[in-house]
Every structure is written in C-alpha cells, then in structure tokens.
C-alpha cells in the first residue's frame, strides 16, 4: 500500500503517563506526517494526573484518527498490547512511540518505507539522549557514552543493518500478535525480551540509520534511580527467562563501582587506580 493511502492500515500507539509537556508537539507531528492518512493514533494513558488526558481529548475532538485509551495496568507493555487487541484488527503495521522523546519529520513514513524496502518484520531506530538542565545534560552525556550505552548498535550511531535488538519503532502486526505481544510481567526491558522471541521465531529486525530518536532523560536523580532499577531488573529477568549469556558490553558497567573503590586506595599503591583509569 502506498504512503498516501487513505484507509488506516497503521496502528500508532503512544504509551503515556503524565507527559503533558511533550504530547502537544508529538500529536501535531504525527498528524502532519506524510503517512498520517494511513494511521490510527492511540494514546494509551496509564492514569495521568496532569493535563495529558485533556490534551488527547482536545486532539480527538478535532480529528477522529486520535483515540484516548485507558490503560488500567499502567505499564507501557500492557498499554501497547491492549491497543493492539482493541484497534489492531484491519491494520498491517504497529508503530510504538514513547511520549518522552523527539522524532524527525515524517518519522512514520520513514519507518514504513524502510520496512517495505527491506522486507523486515521489525524496524528499529538509533536513539540519542539530550538534556536541558545541568543534571539532565550530564545524564544524556553518560547515556550517549560507550560505557553508559553498553556499546549497543542503536546507541553507537552505526550504519543501518540487520540486528538482534534496537529501539522499538515499527513491527508487522502479525509478527507482534504471533509472539503474543509484550510480556506484561515486565515493567521495563520488555522490548529486548520481545526481540529475543521474535528472532528465535525467525523474524528479522532492521536498524534504520537515518531515523534518529531523541530521548529526554529523567530530570531528577530519584526518578532516574527508579528507572534504572526497573531496567536492571527487567534485563536480569530477560537473561534468566531465555537463559542468555550476558555480553561483555552489558556487564562492563558493573565494574565501575569496584574500580572507583580500588582507585580510592590508589594512594597507597598506584596500580590499584589502573581499572578506574581504563
């Protein structure tokens, strides 16, 4: 189907919880996307207490392509699954967008073009972090670094190609459904866990180099701590569930704290500071 088709065959799902600061710009961009005529846009809200729901209702009142969906389970994985079950029939593609991010122009059209060009079952994209205040900028710098990102291809800015995981963007709905969607017992890392199941089922994942997503890190240390605690738990559960062997790049950040402690004793014996220097 061409990018200008008028019949919706693309389900766009935006999991949301208190994202009023980002929703206006995101929905405006989606509705002006070159593929907007193909899209049904569902905001799966997990019980926002800010103006998020009011914003979505305002857009829905003027454009029937925008739908507000209650997500009582609150988790992103549950919100996407619920939207796929309720609004997926008749659609060929699923696009997931996080409200807490920025997207290039015609992002949806670019994803669809990449899928149709490559024949991929899933199209993932690179992600770069960007911040405003001092703490957020520092977090973004860490997340963009080799150590902070673990060296994964979708964070290094590598050339596009076939991968086993990337930042989730687009999937064939039949592939998503056959895999039973996201595992809703995962509060985080549900995307990587699903990619394990997709690749083991013979599905192919493409990294589209030019569609870079800008991620805005948490602004407060406590929120960042909770986020990474959940991510670490999710990653550990993925490893245990699928009996994976962690890669060196994934385990390397665990060496940071011991290295710093050794460096503190470096005044007594210089070589102890070597791991931290490396």
The CATH class label is Alpha Beta
The shape is globular
* Number of continuous helical runs: 13
Radius of gyration: 20 Å
The averaged pLDDT comes out at: 87
Main structural class: alpha/beta
Q: If strands are numbered along the chain, what order do they take across the biggest sheet? A: 3-2-1-4-9-6-10-8
Q: Would you list the SSEs in sequence order as H and E?
A: EHEHEHEEHEEHHHEEHHEEHHHH
Helix content: 40-55%
> Could you say what the CATH topology is called?
Spore Coat Polysaccharide Biosynthesis Protein SpsA, Chain A
Approximate strand percentage: 15-25%
Q: How many angstroms separate the termini?
A: 52 Å
In this structure, how is the largest beta sheet organized?
Answer: 8 strands, mixed
Condensed summary:
With 278 residues, this protein is of the alpha/beta class. It is 44% helix and 17% strand.
Topology of this structure?
Blueprint: E1 10-16, H1 20-31, E2 39-45, H2 52-62, E3 66-70, H3 76-87, E4 93-96, E5 101-102, H4 107-118, E6 122-125, E7 127-129, H5 134-144, H6 146-149, H7 153-156, E8 161-163, E9 167-172, H8 173-178, H9 190-200, E10 205-207, E11 213-215, H10 221-242, H11 248-251, H12 256-264, H13 274-277
Parallel strand pairs: 1-2, 1-4, 2-3, 6-10, 7-11
Antiparallel strand pairs: 4-9, 5-11, 6-9, 8-10
């Amino acid at each position: 189907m061409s990018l200008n088709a008028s019949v919706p065959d693309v389900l766009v799902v935006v999991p949301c919880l208190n994202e009023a600061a980002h929703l206006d710009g995101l929905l405006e961009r989606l509705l002006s996307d070159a593929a907007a005529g193909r899209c049904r846009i569902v905001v799966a809200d997990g019980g926002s207490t800010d103006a998020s729901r009011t914003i979505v209702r305002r857009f829905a009142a003027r454009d029937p392509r925008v739908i507000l969906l209650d997500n009582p389970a609150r988790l992103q994985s549950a919100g996407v699954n619920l939207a796929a079950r309720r609004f997926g029939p008749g659609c060929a593609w699923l696009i997931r967008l996080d409200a807490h991010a920025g997207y290039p122009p015609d992002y949806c059209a670019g994803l669809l073009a990449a899928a149709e060009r490559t024949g991929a079952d899933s199209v993932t994209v690179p992600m770069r972090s960007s911040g405003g205040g001092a703490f957020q900028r520092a977090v973004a710098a860490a997340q963009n670094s080799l150590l902070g990102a673990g060296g994964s291809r979708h964070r290094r800015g590598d050339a596009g190609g076939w991968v086993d995981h990337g930042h989730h963007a687009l999937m064939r709905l039949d592939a998503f459904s056959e895999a039973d969607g996201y595992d809703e017992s995962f509060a985080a890392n549900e995307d990587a866990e699903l990619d394990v199941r997709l690749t083991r089922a013979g599905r192919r994942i493409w990294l589209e180099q030019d569609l870079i997503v800008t991620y805005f890190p948490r602004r407060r240390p406590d929120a960042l701590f909770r986020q990474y605690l959940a991510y670490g738990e999710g990653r550990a559960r993925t490893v245990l569930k699928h009996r994976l062997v962690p890669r060196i790049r994934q385990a390397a950040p665990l060496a940071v704290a011991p290295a710093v402690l050794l460096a503190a004793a470096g005044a007594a014996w210089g070589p102890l500071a070597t791991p931290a220097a490396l």
